[in-house]
Design a protein that fits this description.
Blueprint (H helix, E strand, L loop, with lengths): L1 E5 L3 H12 L3 E5 L3 H8 L10 H10 L3 E4 L10 E4 L15 H15 L6 E5 L7 H10 L4 E5 L9 H6 L4 E5 L6 H10 L1 H4 L5 E5 H32 L3 H9 L20 H14 L7 H24 L8 E5 L14 H11 L3 E5 L4 H7 L4 E2 L3 H5 L4 E4 L4 H4 L3 H7 L4 E4 L6 H6 L3 E4 L4
Parallel strand pairs: 1-2, 1-4, 2-3, 4-5, 5-6, 7-8, 9-10, 9-12, 10-11, 12-13, 13-14
Helix pairs in contact: 1-3, 9-11, 9-12, 11-12, 12-13
Bound molecules: uridine-5'-diphosphate-xylopyranose.
């Protein structure tokens, strides 16, 4: 099939390449000509395991094209909307202007198809109620149908999650009258459906809510265990033990109970705040007050680490040398959006600390967005002469670090394990004072 993916940010670029990988002819469109030129050469503009191969293979075999011009999309049957919906500057809600501009540009092409069925598929995360408004606008054009099909991919597993998602959710205007659009989207996803991936057809509102509910629930799990972690610090309990044992109850589950410095990235914080905001607009303020606490517990973790650092440095951050291991919001990505690690780095820097940050892949983004922070290519250079080391992103290579070697480089052997991944006895045996969050 011939499909387009409008918006080639992280989600759109991965979706475009993955759809080409399963055999479709795909046109990825973005207004950012530099990005389109890079993608068109088969080069990934961000770090994502496995993406480079899928991208370059499909650019080379001629199934995947990138363009800045809507004229190239005139005989496309299925248009995916993968535009960003960033948090608005004026509050918690989402900025839908990129989707609006894309629809303005797309509408003349849809009209020109003279009633031939065309599917528009929204993948962006939007406040509940958005799809119906867009659907009503598109319904004025004969032959055009809108499906809202939320995306659940995780960074670091983006290609895998796109090609083998846990579920496919289709949001439609009326579940009793959606045979055409379901059939068309089933045809796009036929290779995934052949793998027996569950597919559900709901109304627009349910589909929209599935996405933000999932991310807000995951955020809730993390803040819950982080609150428990604080009690562990006070009482001497071990949060890893508590998480392990409660996770053995299937109703709770083991995942997303890793205590530490909390969640960040482009999705969890934004979706949580978006849900709070939309619930407020819809009159459900009180029932969603707890999500504000989930957010506050999360950002409070960052302050918690700053306080811990101050205490370990005898109450004075000014002029003290601090090495930060990890800048990305989680491993296997170079994404530094709302990174807890960098937020902590900036807070320490603003209190006068001499902060050095290292990361295996995200340093380019650190230099671009946070020029005030000193970026170091290697762990050794970051740790050399440090008064305190903070491990803030759990890159696998950091778990393998040799505490004896680093002991020789640091000025003072003090480390905070912000992600609870270090072998505490081994580090302590090598002479380090180790503080792990929620573990004694
Ligand atoms: C998330 C959702 O998982 C995904 O389904 C959705 O489509 C997009 O948002 P992502 O932002 O890539 O994906 O990251 P995720 O793996 O969910 O981690 C989010 C944050 O939570 C990271 O900062 C991570 O370090 C943190 N986290 C995760 C914890 O602090 N503890 C945990 O137990 C799990």
């Amino acid at each position: 099939m011939k499909i387009s993916v409008i918006g080639c940010g992280y989600l759109g670029a991965v979706h475009a390449a993955s759809m080409a990988e399963v055999g479709h002819e795909v046109y990825g469109l973005d207004v950012d000509s530099t990005r389109i030129a890079t993608l068109g050469r088969g080069l990934a503009p961000f770090h994502e395991p496995g993406f480079d191969e899928v991208l370059s293979r499909n650019v080379d075999n001629g199934r995947l094209h990138f363009t800045t011009s809507y004229d190239d999309l005139d005989d496309v049957d299925v248009h995916f909307l993968a535009l960003g919906t960033p948090q608005r500057d004026d509050g918690l809600g989402a900025d839908l202007s990129y989707i609006d501009s894309a629809l303005d540009a797309l509408a003349p092409l849809l009209k020109a198809r003279n009633g031939r069925t065309t599917l528009v598929v929204g993948k962006s995360t939007v406040p509940v109620g958005t799809a119906r408004t867009i659907g009503e606008r598109l319904a004025a054009i004969p032959g055009v149908k809108l499906v809202w099909n939320p995306e659940f991919l995780r960074e670091g597993f983006a290609v895998e999650d796109t090609l083998r998602p846990d579920r496919l959710v289709y949001g439609v205007a009326d579940t009793a009258d959606a045979a055409d659009e379901v059939e068309l989207l089933d045809a796009v996803y036929a290779p995934l459906l052949a793998l027996k991936i569950p597919r559900r057809v709901y109304n627009y509102e349910s589909a929209e809510l599935v996405k933000v509910s999932a991310n807000s629930f995951l955020a809730t799990k993390i803040s819950f265990i982080n609150a428990i972690s604080e009690l562990c610090d006070i009482t001497g309990a071990d949060v890893a033990d508590v998480a392990e044992a409660i996770g053995m109850d299937d109703r709770i589950g083991r995942k997303f109970l890793r205590a530490g410095i909390g969640f960040g990235g482009g999705c969890l914080p934004k979706d949580l705040r978006g849900l709070i905001s939309r619930a407020g607009e819809l009159g459900a303020v009180d029932s969603f007050a707890f999500l504000r606490d989930i957010d506050a517990i999360n950002t409070g973790r960052r302050e918690y680490v700053v306080r811990l650092a101050r205490r370990l440095l005898d109450g004075e951050l000014d002029g003290r040398r601090i090495a930060i291991l990890g800048a990305a919001f989680k491993p296997d990505t170079d994404d530094v959006r709302d990174s807890p690690a960098l937020d902590i780095a900036l807070k320490l820097y603003s209190e006068g600390a001499r902060v050095k940050v290292t990361d295996p892949v995200a340093l380019g983004n650190v230099r671009k967005r946070y020029p005030a922070l000193h970026a170091e290519e290697s762990v050794e250079d970051a740790v050399r002469n440090a008064d305190l080391v903070l491990l803030l992103t759990e890159w696998p290579e950091y778990k393998q670090l040799d505490p004896t070697v680093l002991r020789e480089l640091a000025s003072d052997a003090k480390i905070v394990d912000g992600r609870n991944v270090l072998d505490l006895p081994a580090w302590r045996a090598a002479g380090w004072h180790v503080e792990a969050l929620g573990r004694s």
